[in-house]
Structures are given as C-alpha cells and as structure tokens.
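Galactose-1-phosphate uridylyltransferase: structure, please.
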Amino acid sequence: MNTPRGARRTDTTLSDGRELIYYDPADAPVRVPVEDTRGLPAPQPQVELRTDPLTGDVITYATHRNTRTYLPPADQCPLCASKLGNPTEIPDLDYNVAVFENRFPSFAGPGRTEVVCFTSDHNKSFTDLSQGQARLVVDAWADRTAELSAREDVEHVFPFENRGREIGVTLSHPHGQIYAYPFLPPRMRTLLARAREHKAVAGSNLFADVLAGEKKDGTRVVAENTNWTAFVPEAARWPVEVHLYPHRQVADLSELSVGERDDFAELYLDVLQRLDGLYGDPLPYIAAWHQAPVRVDRELGYLHLEVLSIRRAADKIKYLAGSESGMGAFISDTRPEDVAETLRRMGS
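Here you go.
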C-alpha cells in the first residue's frame, strides 16, 4: 500500500513474529517479501520502569540488551540485505528503506522500539544518500510516527540516529531508531514547561519565536531554503550543535507537506556535508527529532531536528564531566557564532 505522502509500503513478519516494513518509491515494482527462514525463538525482553522520586524521571532497565550484537564484521552485519550464508534481519536480497521491531528492545509491553535502515548499502552514511533516498527516509519516519502515535501505550515518538563509535554505535550499517515511549521523556517535559510559561507571558509559541529571532539576527544561521532554516542555537550546549526548523509550526513529521519533506531532505543533506567537512572526516553525531507529545500539550510543540556532536576539535572529544554529569550545567569550549560562521563557509 502507499503511505499518505506517496511511498510504497510493504508489511511482513520475521520468523519470531516481529514486524518488518519495507518502504520503496511509489513507482517501484510491487515488492513480494521473502520468507525469513532463520527460525528465531520468540523474543523474551526483560524491561522494568522505575520513577526517580527526586526528579520524577522514568528510568528504564532493559537487562537483556547486554547480549545484543556488538560491532560485527561487515560480512556478518545483521542490517544488510540477506545473502547466501548470511541471513539477516532483512530477508530480501535488496531494499530501499526497511523498518523492523528491535530484537533487543528498550521497551516491551508498553511502548515499542524500532530500527530504521536507511539503505541496503553497508558502506554509505545518511550524508551519502541522494535527495530521493533521504526523502524516502522522511516518509518512513512520518508513517511510523503516525502509526505509533495511534497506540494507546505510547506517549511520545522519538526518531533518532546515532552515528560513530564515539557516540556508542554498536552496528556500523547506516541506520537509526525510533523509540515510542510509554511516558513523556525528561527533556520533553522540560521543553514543554518552558513553552507553557512562554505562552502565558508572551501569548505565542516559544519555538516559533526562537526561530523568528534566529532568522532576524542571522549570525547563527547556517543555511536555509523555502521551508526550513538550519541554525546554531544561541545557547548551544554541545561543541557542534545545529537545529533544523520548518517555517510552519507542525506537531510532528506526519503533518509535513510534500514540499516541506522535499526541502528538509535537501537542507539536511547540505548540513550533514558541512558537518563532515569540519574536520575532514565523518563527524560523530546524534540526530534527534523533537516532536509534540501524542496526547498532551500538542499545541505547545513544534517539530524540529537537533543534530549534536561531542567532538570539540579534530582530535578531541567533549566528555560530560563533573559540572555536566553531576549538576547538568554545561560548560562549552566553542562559541555558537563561531561554529555557525565556520559551517556557513563550508558551503561556499
């Protein structure tokens, strides 16, 4: 079937009952899924949620994840398309974008965790995708956001990508994840509290006002197009930090128009190429989508993407030491305006 914005979706299941979904261009041939012949046992995740009485934060314990696959050789990658002698999580011989339930989930019962494979090419990164390929990933994110948001056990949908061993990546294949939290995560609670205060005082949306202020000032804007602006935030925490905002307030990815999806793919690839040019090699980063909660305060939210890197120099990493880890008070070695100016020059 086709998704609301045109990608072709094909649903199937893996041998242990987990869901697998293929996303192909709308004009691609109809996909006939290949059977998963691995005969995997049914997953038995061990997940426990506890609430910290001091902060109200929910802490998740997923002890079964200690046995998950860790940095396998390329010829044994579980995210590549299957081939003779190496049946993988994706039984077909090739794919465009594939999404499946995580075999080692952080949430089970309430909530859900999924893996999003951006391409079958093991040696690519998101930066290397064509605009059409990146656009297909956006369609997959949007479709999963809509479907996961409809679940009664989900409060917040968080698509993200970890890139680079410095970040803690355990599989080098180009992929991201989606966490469908059964609770509202701490950062979203904090952002929404600030947005609520801002609305009461200013009568407007906090995120929209931040975007308007960055566009008016201009010194931290990295790049922009018709529907999106990328900028280094005024109070960036991380050595390298770029936020991408749509010019229209939308709650989540599923609400983006065709044009907004096209323009995001174009601008994001531009930003990623600039980031990789900073130190002359692939930059380790976390790309974190901030979407409005599923049920509460949706009018306060504003979809945007935050791209964060812990690399503070070509040969140095920013570690979260005493002030950051103990008190949550960030001390940065880089100035947002300088980072923005450097990234602007990368595109010239």
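Notes: The radius of gyration is 20 Å.
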